[in-house]
Amino acid sequence: MCLELSITSVYLVCRLGSCSSTARIGGACNSSLRMAEVVAGQTITIGSRRIPWFGGFRLTTGRLLFPEWVNRVKPLAGAGLAGIPAYLVFLLYFGGSPTTTDVGYSPKQPIPFSHEQHAGQMGLDCRYCHTTVETAAFAAVPPTSVCMNCHRTIGEGVNELQPLLQSDESGDPIRWVRVHDLPDYVYFDHSAHVSRGVSCVSCHGRIDHMEQVYQAERLSMAWCLECHRDPAPRLRSSEFVTDLTWIANEDPRALGRRLMKDHGISPSTDCSTCHR
Ligand code: HEC
Ligand code: HEC
Ligand code: HEC
Ligand code: HEC
Ligand code: HEC
Fold it and tell me: Domain segments of the chain: what residues?
């Protein structure tokens, strides 16, 4: 495991392990050094982004050592460390909005579009609508015209389809509500995954069973890294990426290892891969 930072309550928890990458915290932490020192006023560097860090503590592998200033604020501890507003600012800023951390988040959409019906029962391929998913970072959500390929004739007079017809007439796009949304400081790229044989199902679950889309996975940093460290069991030949029912007819890990070797697949765990 490499350096991992997470914020629980009012503490920053930093775990260090065998780092394949170089992480810098105030310049004092890297792959060979299994100890980090974060002192007040310094910054944490993630890729090109510098995050100010207002607290201060020292930690060694497996053990959290509080700095001297903790002794000074101890009398105040009853009132709570929450008295240090900087921690809270940091916490609110990076603590993850419900839309990115809540498994099960499922906002109501302007039209009750069902993946279960269209992708499941009718068997439409994901790429029919999400046309850029193999070639771009962003997986395009289809414009009204794609729906109208069929709904110009199908479902005439159906109430639920009225907003679609209105959008077609006026040219105003339908305002679909985002379900998955990583914080802005995280870089994600669909094509990098889909074209290397990571299926939609690994990250979005059984969309073809969903009446209304919900977030199936945590999408936390630890979750991303879990696969980046050991992608083999979750790889397949890229022609099957949108087949959510596909199962390997051999040991998935053996297949994955072969694919990694043949295609030179080796996901990076460098901070700058996802924080640039
Ligand atoms: C007929 C068009 C169509 C097909 C086929 C389709 N989708 Fe969608 N998809 C949509 C539309 C429209 C939305 C936005 C509304 C919603 O979230 O339900 C959407 C939303 C999504 C979202 C959520 C996006 C967000 O806001 O975070 C995911 C994930 C998704 N689709 C995955 C898939 C997968 C995987 C497949 C193939 C199994 C698929 N879709 C097939 C039209 C389609
Ligand atoms: C390949 C053809 C096709 C495409 C593309 C398509 N649909 Fe459908 N849709 C259907 C069919 C077929 C039904 C089922 C109609 C029925 O059961 O009477 C349906 C049903 C629906 C329904 C349920 C209402 C009803 O008539 O039962 C909604 C809502 C809907 N579609 C919205 C959309 C939206 C929004 C899009 C674009 C993102 C879209 N559809 C794209 C073929 C399509
Ligand atoms: C490795 C994980 C992963 C895979 C594989 C994956 N997605 Fe996503 N998807 C995500 C994440 C994470 C987001 C949120 C991205 C963001 O907020 O920047 C997302 C967002 C989306 C969106 C909303 C638009 C966007 O790009 O933000 C759609 C639509 C979508 N995915 C469809 C698909 C389809 C279809 C497939 C399979 C062909 C697929 N995804 C494969 C992780 C994945
Ligand atoms: C199920 C496995 C899996 C998950 C989950 C996953 N990834 Fe990946 N990721 C991969 C693989 C495989 C590659 C391709 C590595 C290669 O090409 O050598 C990759 C590559 C990438 C790249 C490299 C793109 C480039 O241009 O080099 C980025 C960025 C990335 N992932 C971000 C993320 C983020 C952010 C998350 C979590 C939201 C995530 N990944 C979750 C497997 C995964
Ligand atoms: C594979 C992609 C990926 C890599 C590599 C990665 N991160 Fe992250 N990181 C994320 C994602 C995704 C989030 C957002 C998590 C959330 O929304 O809950 C995140 C969030 C964070 C946060 C905000 C605090 C938190 O836990 O929410 C910090 C700080 C951070 N990363 C530091 C790092 C450092 C330092 C490294 C290098 C050791 C690193 N990251 C490598 C994907 C990655």
Answer: 4-95, 101-141+176-274
